Structures are given as C-alpha cells and as structure tokens.
Amino acid sequence: MLALWVSVKIKPEKRDEFLKIIGHDAEHSVADEPGCVRFDVFEDTAEVNHFFFHEVYKDEAALEYHRATPHFKLWADANPQLLAAPVERLLVKDVFSSDPAFK
To answer: What is the rounded CA–CA span in Å between residue 26 and residue 54?
Structure first.
C-alpha cells in the first residue's frame, strides 16, 4: 500500500468551491477507483483553510490511475484559483496498520 499526505492552503474566499471540488474528488476516488482504498479530507484545527488529504492506494499503478481520472483533473485544473500556497505532498508506504483494509 502507498499513502499520500497532501497539505493544501486555500484562499478564504474560495472555501465553498474548494470543499465542493475536493469532496467530489474524494467521493469518486473511493467509489470509482478499484485501487483507491481511502481518501480522507481533514482541516487543521489551528489554521482555518489549511487542509490535509490522506489518500491510500493499493500500489503505484492505482495512484497513476487516480491521476488520470476526470475527478482528479477537475481538482488539478482548479488549483490555481483555489490555492493560497503551493501544494505539499508526502508519499509513504505501509509498514503496519490496524485497519484490515490495509492488509
């Protein structure tokens, strides 16, 4: 399994649009991609409009598949209008998880 932690800071005036687009991406990632195990969106409790995505994919091929989907393209195309800072990404591989879905 591969996990991706993504940190994004959005423009305050774009919050509603961001939530709609990232919600669509997260929902369709899990529903439409066999290799996407999870896609969670979190908001920083200390900094409004700072969000984190926790995405889990079965393998590198599943992650590449995700990046080629229409819902990811919608998100990627909207980035220049939504983001207040560059996206930060951290790609990690699983070592241990208590969640049976990761086995």
So the answer is: 10
Residue with tokens 């529903």: 31
pTM greater than 0.85 (yes/no): yes
DSSP 8-state secondary structure symbol assigned to residue 69? S
Rounded distance, CA 87 to CA 100, Å? 30
- pLDDT, averaged in runs of 10, over the chain (103 residues): 96 98 97 95 97 96 97 96 97 84 65
pLDDT of residue 102: 65
The Cα-based distances of 52 to 26, 30, 48, 71, 90 in angstroms read 12, 17, 12, 18, 11
Neighbour tally for 43: CB within 10 Å: 13
Q: Where are the alpha helices (DSSP H) in 1-103?
A: 15-32, 60-67, 70-82
Cα angle 69, 75, 76 (rounded to 5 degrees) comes to 85
